TrEMBL record, chains A, B:
Protein name: Thiamine-monophosphate kinase
Organism expressing this protein natively: Auraticoccus monumenti
Top enzyme class: transferase
Binding-site positions, Mg(2+) 3: 38, 82, 216
GO molecular function: ATP binding; magnesium ion binding; thiamine-phosphate kinase activity
Enzyme Commission code: 2.7.4.16
Region forming the signal peptide: none
NCBIfam families per the UniProt record, alphabetical: PRK05731.1-4, thiL
HAMAP family with a match to the protein in the record: TMP_kinase (MF_02128)
Pathway the protein acts in: Cofactor biosynthesis; thiamine diphosphate biosynthesis; thiamine diphosphate from thiamine phosphate: step 1/1
Gene: thiL
Reactions performed catalytically: thiamine phosphate + ATP = thiamine diphosphate + ADP
Length: 319, 319
């Protein structure tokens, strides 16, 4: 009897899954030893940036909404954006995949392809990972970036600086609102939820332009600028009129009875970058949207047109 | 009305959990910027070793068996052993914790303490992590080691080399056999299952002694030496009489109707190190247990007293 090819992760087995992930990986700059041993070996750069980020099925993605390809792309995008947010260059990446044994191999193959595609876009090289069994698909991604200068932290914003953005805001949140109602269009919003478009390279650009503080917008602009305000001991005031609200956001807002600015100000998961610059130093492609100010009697906070915005500032995964 | 202190992870919230993990972390060598920003910043060492490892509740640990303290210790031990297995020195570590909102804060606090305790034992410094929501507690640990020389891979074993071990073998498997029957003793075996004793520093020791190949025994000695045999293109023959079978293993074997050598040869999770050395180069504290040979007509494989051992060679988490 001919041996049947496996169709699930369980059929493939743990070592087979690792082999699938390591097959055909080409050499990546600075990687002395790639996957296949106990650990990868990297030729040390001067300064490194490391971060880890986890996506859980049913919390951050749904397999009935996202393909494996989109899930792989999103996992790299969400983790990799943190390297950009320090002003560093993407370098290497490790993936830890936990999944049920009946995970279809086609899903796994597309996931792998999505990881490689986003690695290609961003400049990360996959150097390691592991797979293990779990009830829900869980993807933990660790990213390592190289930094040939000072990191851009959240703590350097100074009163008088301009707050500027690069990348989309609100698209992923609008896509989620559409999916939650059982629709798949507008497709541009849905696609943004399933796999965000990170402005790769913008972190380095901001650092070289002298950004004083920077953050990856993963929890919503108000929440993430709140981190900058507290870390820097400043206030931030945004100018609502400075934001360009894309037509797709207006469409979804109208269909769902929401204010499009809700998506823009509190929607996470687009992984735009928000940074502060001295006046006149905002680089090309960045949109000025506000000012850094001395904190008032209420301390560090984020306001829109001088007022604290009603309702939430963003989402907390445990909220 | 007085605000009640939170008692669960959900009550604490995502940012509260991060704060709990980053509070009071002292400076660690080479860490330019610790937790609290988008990513940590490390001052590059010459050569780095990176690896990631995941533990899932119900698969790798059970909360009714393991305390938070033990789970934290085991997470660091299991991941950190991969750095040792390359011959590198522990340096920094990132933890990604996914857990249900009703996770008790006491568990989380003990988990954190366990992480710090094993970091202290091993030399790792915690520099980052994230927390997110999931049905089952899932801990993904990424470890970064420093290497001031050549890595000891799985591929360098040469015919004539001695195979030697450092650390325990079979204790964790014996502990699992005890727990699976509803017992909590012998306590030494149970403790080994809940939090292994990694021979920290032995990886560097082996590298400096000229180890030609090395592997972390996480899947069972036969399975892991099988990786070495295939990567090196050699055969490995173990001498059953060379293994010291601890009394606790004999006790558990008798109580569970098993052969104690099953625990020793196929039990994983103790994170002993197995390495190959030129004759005469086996360093202090290591036990010679076999020889590397030219592969026979059956190719690279692992035998015991010249014969392939009946039954499994180790465990596959998806098997």
């Amino acid at each position: 009897m001919a041996e049947q090819a496996p169709t699930t992760l369980g059929g493939l087995g743990e070592f087979g899954a690792v082999a699938l992930f390591t097959k055909g990986l080409s050499a990546h700059p600075g990687v002395f030893l790639g996957p296949g041993d106990d650990a990868a070996v990297l030729e040390g750069a001067g300064r490194l940036v490391v971060s880890t980020d986890t996506m859980v099925e049913g919390v951050h993605f749904r397999r009935d909404w996202s393909t494996g390809l989109e899930t792989g792309r999103k996992a790299v995008a969400a983790a990799g954006a943190d390297v950009e947010a320090m002003g560093a260059d993407p370098w290497t990446l490790l993936i830890s995949l936990s999944a049920p044994a009946d995970l279809p191999l086609t899903w796994l193959r597309f996931f792998h392809q999505g990881v490689l595609e986003e690695c290609e876009r961003s400049g990360f090289g996959l150097v390691g990972g592991d797979t293990t069994r779990s009830r829900d698909v869980t993807v933990a991604v660790t990213v390592v970036g190289r930094l040939d200068g000072e990191p851009v932290t959240r703590a350097g914003a100074r009163p008088g600086d301009v707050v500027a953005l690069r990348g989309r805001l609100g698209w992923a949140a609008a896509g989620l609102a559409v999916l939650a109602r059982g629709f798949r269009s507008p497709r541009a919003a849905v696609a943004a939820q399933l796999a965000p478009e990170v402005p790769w390279g913008a972190g380095r650009q901001a650092r070289l332009a002298g950004a004083t503080a920077m953050v990856d917008v993963s929890d919503g602009l108000l929440a993430d600028l709140g981190h900058v305000a507290r870390a820097s001991g400043v206030a931030v005031d945004l100018d609502a009129g400075a934001f360009e609200v894309a037509p797709v956001l207006a469409t979804v807002a109208q269909a769902t009875g929401r204010d499009p600015m809700d998506f823009v100000l509190t929607g996470g998961e687009d992984h735009a970058l928000a940074a502060t610059f001295a006046t006149g130093a905002v680089p090309e492609g960045w949109t000025p949207v506000g000012r850094v100010q001395q904190p008032g009697p209420d301390g560090p906070r984020v306001t829109v047109d001088g007022a604290v915005r009603e309702g939430g500032q963003g989402h907390d995964h445990f909220g």
